[in-house]
Write a structure and sequence with these properties.
Mean pLDDT: 85
Strand content: 5-15%
Structural class: mainly alpha
Largest sheet: 2 strands, antiparallel
Number of helices: 3
Low-confidence stretches: none
Shape: rod-shaped
Distance between the termini: 118 Å
Order of helices and strands: HEEHH
Strand order of the largest sheet: 1-2
């Protein structure tokens, strides 16, 4: 393999080329550019760096970072909100069960479907008369 000389590589990068955009029907030159490989490389590198910078800025300075998994943002906040919502849901379910039980008991009382309770079998503590 032949070694590339640094001077020949630099000369190759600095060679000038002409890019011409022509109208196909009239063969009229619409736009022409004088380019080198180095200028094209610098232009594409600059565009790449600017796009990466814009994407990073978009993610850092907007709420989009909360939607990216593994970024560390939003996990604690989401977990806290999840726990709060779980506690609220549990308390609402508990209240609903209590109200359903209350309405069932109220319905039993109003319809007269109460179980007969024999008070003789209850072991109630004896209450002493307190004199005031």
């Amino acid at each position: 393999m032949a070694k590339l000389d640094a001077n020949s590589t630099l000369k190759r990068l600095q060679n000038r080329y002409r890019l011409v955009v022509m109208n196909e029907d009239t063969y009229e030159e619409v736009v022409k550019f004088k380019l080198s490989r180095l200028s094209v490389y610098i232009f594409l590198s600059t565009v790449f760096v600017v796009l990466v910078g814009l994407i990073i800025a978009l993610l850092v300075f907007t709420p989009l970072k909360y939607y990216l998994p593994g970024t560390g943002y939003g996990n604690a906040k989401q977990m806290r909100e999840y726990k709060e919502l779980t506690m609220r849901t549990d308390s609402i379910e508990k209240d609903l069960r209590f109200k359903q039980k209350y309405y069932e008991d109220l319905h039993k009382v109003l319809t007269g479907n109460l179980p007969v309770m024999d008070t003789n079998k209850l072991d109630l503590p004896k209450v002493e008369n307190i004199k005031e």
